Fold this sequence. Notes:
The protein is mostly helical. 55% of the residues lie in helices and 0% in strands.
Amino acid sequence: MPRLLKKPEIATLFERFAALEPHPVTELKAPNDFCLLVAVVLSAQATDVGVNKATPALFAVADTPQKMAALGAENIAEYIKTLNFFPTKAKNVAALSEQLVARFGGVIPEDPEALESLPGVGRKTARVWLNCARGWPVIAVDTHVFRVANRLGLCRTKNPDDTQAALEKAVPASFKVHAHHWLILHGRYVCKARQPECWRCPVVELCQYAKKAMEPPKPRKSRL
């Protein structure tokens, strides 16, 4: 069974990521912190690319909780109908906007429990927003982080909650602010789900993944 990385190896791994991308940021596009929260809610079971295509027109007419609440779920749905589960997401965005106005004076709470009490805002969404909007040194676990962390040998876990707990312990404090972005970007562009591109991985000699692909796939011959 592949082993877990040791502390010096983990430090080296994140030093490599930091050298390549010193200040990683979310790929979700949003004009302000409220719109970022909406974008993160919409990104559940959707790609950042898909969300970024759907939201510019929405944010052009509703970039505050007050405007979004006034727009209402039915109208929000028209803007985001290209996204998976758009009716439910529209209801959540409308409801969280209403609650932000009614309960918090239109200000997004920074208390994690209060943030998670908003419709459509779960643990991962709250942590992503706190990290991206406020720079909190917290780690959010999506499918990319779960896959990459287990492949690399940062943890051996079976679900996102256990992965988060393991990464909180394993990642050195000096790298925690950017850790989940580095892991997401690595999973999105290098350590891909179906075909990891190990031949161009900056941490390949540290990685504990047993099925490394050290050469790019050969191009298929044309049948013409």
